[in-house]
């Protein structure tokens, strides 16, 4: 299987599942941000984000103007946020909270639509 299709399936399912969990249990969002104030959780979370972002960018660093760009940007975003959380934890958590409070519905809706788009590409449900 092509790396792009595999990652489209992975990120598509991940984004849909993440959206559903946070939509059905919005307390999880507050719990995530309160957990980010715990240094142990923050270090583990940043390491996981760095590893996922680094693996994604190493296996898929394709800058074509199609669905592959979305996968590449997800990987670079994970790497960037993981590094930011590890190097500058307090300012990064502060800015993530501000962004989340002001744009929570827009962000999660875009993530949901991005997940549907990637799954459509991977499974070719509706031909584009």
Taken as a percent bin, the fraction of beta residues is under 5%
Assembly of the depicted chains: single chain
Query: What is the N-to-C succession of helices and strands?
Result: HHHHH
Global morphology: globular
Number of helices, counting only DSSP H or I runs of 4 residues or more: 5
In round numbers, the mean pLDDT is 90
Biggest sheet character: none
Poorly predicted residue ranges: none
Which class best fits the helix and strand makeup?
Answer: mainly alpha
**Helical residues, percent:** over 70%
The strand count comes to 0
Euclidean distance between termini CA atoms: 20 Å
What is the C-alpha radius of gyration, as a whole number of Å? 15 Å
Overall tally of structural domains: 1
Question: Which characteristics define this entry?
Answer:
mainly alpha
């Amino acid at each position: 299987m092509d790396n792009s299709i595999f990652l489209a399936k992975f990120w598509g399912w991940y984004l849909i599942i993440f959206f559903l969990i946070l939509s059905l249990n919005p307390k999880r969002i507050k719990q995530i941000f309160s957990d980010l104030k715990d240094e142990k959780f923050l270090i583990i979370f940043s390491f996981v984000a760095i590893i996922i972002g680094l693996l994604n960018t190493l296996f898929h660093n394709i800058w074509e103007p199609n669905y592959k760009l979305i996968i590449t940007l997800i990987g670079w975003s994970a790497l960037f946020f993981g590094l930011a959380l590890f190097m500058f934890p307090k300012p990064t958590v502060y800015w993530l909270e501000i962004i989340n409070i002001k744009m929570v519905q827009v962000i999660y809706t875009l993530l949901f639509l991005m997940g549907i788009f990637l799954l459509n590409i991977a499974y070719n449900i509706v031909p584009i």
